Amino acid sequence: FDGVFIFTTDTPFDANDQSTYPFIWQGGSGNANIALRNNIVGLFIQDQWRAACNLTFNIGLRWDYEDDVYTKHDWNNFGPRVHFAWDPFYDGRTSVRGGFGVYYDQVLLNAPLLATIFEPGRFNFQTILFPGYPDPLVGGSQVPIPLPPNISILDRNNQTPYKNVGSLGIQRELAADMAFSADLVYARSYHLLMLRDNNAPTQGVYPDPTIGVAYEPQTRGRGEYMALQLGFTKRFGKSIGAQLAYT
Q1: Alpha-carbon dihedral angle through residues 199, 74, 161, 85, given to the nearest 10 degrees
Q2: Whole-angstrom Cα distance, residue 202 to residue 128?
Q3: Backbone phi, then psi, for 89, in 5-degree steps?
Q4: Per-residue pLDDT tens for 160-191?
Q5: Are the C-beta atoms of residues 168 and 131 closer than 8 Å to each other?
Q6: What is the spatial distance between Cα 218 and Cα 142, in angstroms, rounded to a whole number?
Q7: Which one, of 182, 125, 181, 117, lies nearest residue 148 by Cα?
Q8: Using one digit for the tens of pLDDT, what is the confidence trace for 4-16?
């Protein structure tokens, strides 16, 4: 609420040199007392199945729920998991492993952000171009130009972000004290949180000139990750070892 000055130069401020004055001042006002409640529930079931003497499966299912943050009663957050480990040569020196799982995210309880989202009238954000200094309303290179306040909108169709993660790899013991591993990892994310401006200007003209930015958090973002992860482990006796990794 105290406000932030943004300068275009790091030259020490000189009241007689207009080039050292700030370019923008941004501040806010309102009620800073925020009370947020967030209920998070996670339930899971898991089983390990040894299908053969050299093949083991880990199978599970998780359910996650989080209420009244940016999603509304998103009850269908079921995340299956399956993983296997296989010793193809029956010698205990090679492990082929892989798995797949669905993982749901949780909301970081950033109180000012969430309060802005759920109670848009709680805060009033103001931006002034060419402000004075240290009082943004007194002095400056030009008469202060107040800009319209920003607002926020909540999209009640938002869903819980989640990602599908799969991996396949191999680990091999090269000697009694040395091992090498290689894993392929792929992840695809859905419903990632993004911030949209519903009042973005077109050719410099705002659709609604009475407001500035109309923030709307939406869960329409997507992400993709692919990696090759290599590892090498070497032991020097019982108490010293070294590990190298490259991704």
Answers
A1: -170
A2: 22
A3: -110, 5
A4: 899 999 999 999 999 989 999 999 999 999 99
A5: no
A6: 38
A7: 125
A8: 999 999 999 998 9
Please compute, for residue 80, the number of CA atoms within 13 A of its CA located in the half-sphere on the CB side.
Answer: 4
Q: What average pLDDT score do residues 35-54 get? A: 90
Q: Tokens at residue 200, please?
A: 């973005």
Cis peptide before 217 (omega within 30 of 0): no
For residue 19, report the phi and psi dihedrals to the nearest 5 degrees. Answer: -70, -15
Name the residue type at position 58.
N
Distance from C-alpha of 105 to C-alpha of 71, rounded to nearest angstrom: 12
The DSSP symbol for 22 reads -
Average pLDDT for 83-97: 96
The overall pTM is greater than 0.85? no
Q: Which residues pair with 28 in a beta bridge?
A: 125
Give ∠ CA 61-107-60 in degrees, rounded to 5: 10
Q: Which two tokens stand for residue 183?
A: 């894993």
Backbone angles phi, psi at 240, to 5 degrees: -130, 140
End-to-end CA distance of the chain: 43
Instruction: State which amino acid sits at residue 51.
Output: A
Q: Over 60: is that where the pLDDT of 42 sits?
A: yes
